[in-house]
Fold:
Amino acid sequence: MKRRMFFLGLAGLAGCTRDVRPRLNVYNWSEYIAPDSVHTFEKEFGVRVHYSIYESNEELLAKVFSGNSGWDVIFPSHYFLKPLHENDLLAPLDAGRLPLLSNLSPEMQQPAWDRSLDWGLPYMLGAAGIIHQRTVPAAEQSWELLWRDDLRGKVTMLDDPADTIGAALLKLGLPLNSTAPSALHAAKEALIAQKRILRAYLNSEARQQLVAGDLQASHLWTTTSLLAMEETDRLAFYYPREGFARYADCAVILKESNRGELAHEFLNFLLRPEIAAANAAEALTTTANQKARPFLPDELRESTALFPDAETLARGQWFEPMPPGAQRLRDRIWTEVKAQ
Structure:
């Protein structure tokens, strides 16, 4: 979640017939929590946590849309809160049980998608940009880099329809969340034109290919890019000047849960500055918790990829839920692009 580095596994205690402690079931992105955080919560509150991971929002939704998933707390991206709420799957948050909400950054205390934090607690913030070999000229810091003929076979785009259609829209000077058929068809044509130079649509798999030098440039999430850059100093990252996509992964409580009080305790625990900092350092991503930032390692606190300046952030655009018709058109365009 890292945001898009996925490993199958479990943390916390598995079910045990002799363990009579209250249990909380938590479903999260992989490596999105520090190794000791779950154990600390279990020990302090005298509970056990069944903790498991998923690889994408789509996988998460497939699990919870039945309304009988067995999970208590999940971490969807912010633009999935509206459809989850509209399908009556979320329990409202009780601010009175979350006294540490003030630890969030001002922007995250009243985010555009959930002004009163009725449904989701902002947990981690992310974005997508371009990572490239330092030997590749990129002075203009534009999306055009990923359409250059001289990089044929050495470029990848994210295997994610929202991000990649969004990147094409931004390259064309159009809004990330465009719904007009004319705009979406223009993005489709841009992506089809790009395919002659594209190696593949890849997510976390691009990391090692970049480190090995097999790729010259990739459209990639910040967290995965930072992982690659930890392994070699031959890589650089930027947010394109035309704009870039932003997202927030949010902790929510499912309506099906009968452990609402314990779930709120867990969310409030995640708001502790030292816990939030440890989780963000493990995930190599940006915490929504402003008071956690002094607890971060210097190299993360000073990272311009994790904490861009105000001018750069102003170019970022938050994903928004799509109207059904526009979403169907985007889905069809993505299928047609990948079939080329």
Observations:
- The chain is about 35% helix and 20% strand.
- The two ends are 29 Å apart (CA to CA).
